[in-house]
Amino acid sequence: MAHEDENAHGHDHGHDHGHERGPVADASVRVARASDAPAVGFVQAVVFREAYAAVLAPEVLATFEPRAFANAWRATLEGDQSGDGVLLVACAGEQVVGFAAVGASDDADAHAGTAELLVLGVHPDARRQGHGSRLLHAVVDTTRGRGRSELAAWVLAADEATRGFLTAAGMLADGAHRERVVSQDGNTTGEIRLSAAVVDSEGAEQA
After folding, report:
1. Can you give the pTM of this predicted structure?
2. For the ranges 17-31, 94-108, 116-130, which has the lowest average pLDDT?
3. CATH classification at residue 141
4. What domain range is 154 assigned to?
5. In the predicted model, what is the mean pLDDT of the chain?
């Protein structure tokens, strides 16, 4: 997973599993605005610290600061948008409680029709309310809307919860794996890639 204390992207950690506790008032997903950067940065810092607690030293986790993530997202949202990259946010009322980013895959073996789920996270206090599932559905819609037919995501090999969430949505391990550098000391952690077609022969969603 691209560990984005440097560029504010990552992969899908800290998701909810799509289990509904009950109706969530005014729950929605929309395209992010530059003004959302602080809220996204806050959620990302919480999610990343939790997701990497088992694989990174405390001093490295401490570098996951909301302001750094927020500044990177603000620069992205205020800058020239390249390609088909999109940042989405999940909201409970007006409050941003989760986020997801999708863009073109840059994997060497990816074909032109492949998009990548770069990150998906939901604040721990807002999980099990369907926000993760709504974000993933919006990612699929965005992928299809950009004319792409496949969605891929890199996840921590040890993160069974995230893999289970994405697998339940139709994404399966495709055999690709890599070691990602996650600290300035050169420490690495293993990742596996999941992928799925987002349209079938009749154009129906699959992921």
Report:
1. 0.82
2. 17-31
3. 3.40.630.30
4. 27-197
5. 84
